Amino acid sequence: MILTFEYRIKPAQKQAECIDHWLELLRRHWNYALGQRLDWLRRTRCTIDRCSLISEPIGEITEKVNYYTQQSDLKQTKILFPDYKDIYCEVQQMNLQRLEKAWKRWLVPNKKEREEDDLDLRKLVN
To answer: Which residues contact 5 (CB under 8 A, 6 or more apart)?
Structure first.
């Protein structure tokens, strides 16, 4: 028999403001980290025979952005933006871990979805 417990927190006004502030900062951090990944993807992907000079940035392609490179930038983030010093580093790391998991799912859809897509294509062909 497995028992689970559900706890409801009732934060004070000051605690609620702190939680809201943390959530806003974590949202910004998530969006910035996602932007880094999308920028890297845009810089490294183009058609085989040509790259558009208008829509593709010209410049140095940075190393692949992943959880570990973004985690190593957390220390610099806390130096540049003092608001992030209030947030525990474990919380920011968990935020990046969730982003890494979502990124991998987005890049490589699961096998079941691919099989369903293949079945749909087979129905269209036959």
So the answer is: none
Q: What is the pTM of this model?
A: 0.73
CA distance 29 to 37: 12
- 23-46 burial code (b ≥16 CB/10 A, e <16): eebbeebbeebeeebeebeeeeee
Whole-number pLDDT of residue 126:
44
Place of tokens 């183009």: 46
Inter-CA distances, 13 with 16, 24, 53, Å = 5, 17, 53
**Are 66 and 100 a contacting pair, CB within 8 Å?**
yes
pLDDT score recorded for residue 57? 59
